[in-house]
Amino acid sequence: MTQTMKAAVISAYKQEFPEIVDLPRPALQAGNVLIQVAAASINPIDLKTKDGGLKMLLHYDFPLILGSDFAGTVTAIGPAVTRFKVGDRVYGRVQKNRIGTFAEYLAAAQTDLALIPDMLSFTEAAALPLVSLTSYQALQEIMQIKPGEKVLIQGGSGGIGTVAIQIAKALGAFVAATTSSHNFQLVKELGADFVIDYRQQDFSEVITDYDYVFDTQGGKILEKAFTIVKPGGKVVSITGLPNHRFAKAYGLSPWKIGALRLASHRLSRLEKDTGVGYEFLFMRPDGDQLTQLGEMITAGKLRPVIDRVLPFTKIKEAFTYSGSGGARGKILLQMIPD
Questions:
Q1: Which pLDDT score, from 0 to 100, does residue 321 have?
Q2: Fewest CB within 10 A of the end CB: N or C in the chain?
Q3: Any bridge partners for residue 36, and if so which?
């Protein structure tokens, strides 16, 4: 008899909310583990996926289980699994073509997972994979921040921002962050050296001569970032337009490369005019990096910031709140109480 599970799915793009339905539990492939999901976090990419915003980069079939990162317990292992055993507490960000963490069970590649640090609950652990990997890849891999260099982190009180500030400080950077005034204390506690109230001040009129900007806003705010960065510095965005360089590296078709070249021409012009580099980051799952980040957690250099935890059955409420843009840190869905 086929075992089933509860999962949150959409049947088409732009569906208002995912619906919780019964589906068969996933089958195991070589190198995969089966995980009973204890908690999963909601990220902006989940809302973007739901609304079809990633169709240029990713193809999905329906019904589609949403969800990108999670924490849970290994309940079975497939052939050739060497990193984990049944009973291990693990967390991770799944491959983009295998999303589906808003479910009671999940099959994931062992290379995308890491052991949860002992001091973290499942809920705390689920708050970290996507945002910590995204921040690490922006700040460490692309920017290669050195002690004393200056970085502006947009949206300092959001899910990405709260983690990026901590990682940037661990790398020795001088960190400025934008947020609203009622989040100043939180952002300073996380390590920000200079905080800008985006409702009262235009960051481009307050700071200058920075080495890097980590953009989480896109649009005109992204374009202004070029004005505060030194020539030779970089702007890294997770919300701006992918450019043709990204499109080529990602292996997109020639017509998509051409389309993105045209769509991002303003950013290419800003690069040329300012001497500041631009990179669009589409983060990748990486269990080894998540293990390194776990060492930062154990050392007390990184902690999750959680706005609220809601039961899985209240996923519609969670999506509504996530879409409001007002969360301080992460929004979690809990399948199993800690």
A1: 96
A2: N
A3: 73, 105
In whole angstroms, what is the distance from residue 321 CA to residue 318 CA? 5
pLDDT of amino acid 1:
64
DSSP, residue by residue, 101-141: -SBSEEEEEGGGEEEPPTT--HHHHHTSHHHHHHHHIIIII
CA–CA dist 319, 37 (Å, integer): 19
Walk along the chain (338 residues) in steps of 10 and give the mean pLDDT of each run: 92 97 96 98 96 92 97 98 98 96 98 98 98 98 98 97 98 98 97 97 97 97 98 97 92 93 95 98 97 97 98 97 92 93
Separation CA 314–CA 318 (nearest Å): 6
Q: Which contacts of 48-51 are long-range, i.e. CB under 8 A and separated by 24 or more positions?
A: 49/99, 50/10, 50/13, 50/14, 50/15, 50/18, 50/319, 51/13, 51/14
On whether the CB atoms of residues 69 and 47 are closer than 8 A, the answer is: no
DSSP 166: H
Q: Which helix (DSSP H) or strand (DSSP E) does residue 39 occupy?
A: strand 32-42
Q: What is the dihedral of CA 96, 80, 129, 6, to 10 degrees?
A: 70
Q: Which amino acid is at 261?
A: R
Short-list 118, 111, 74, 80, CA closest to 93: 111
Q: Count CB neighbours of 139 within 10 A.
A: 25
Closest CA to 205 of 193, 216, 221, 217: 221
| Number of other residues whose CB lies within 10 A of the CB of residue 105 | 22
Of 336, 337, 333, the closest CA to residue 102 belongs to 333
In which element (H, E) is residue 152 found? strand 150-153
Residue 188 identity (one-letter amino acid): K
Whole-angstrom Cα distance, residue 289 to residue 127?
Answer: 16
Report how far apart the first and last C-alpha atoms of the chain are (Å, whole number): 30
301 token code pair? 């250099």
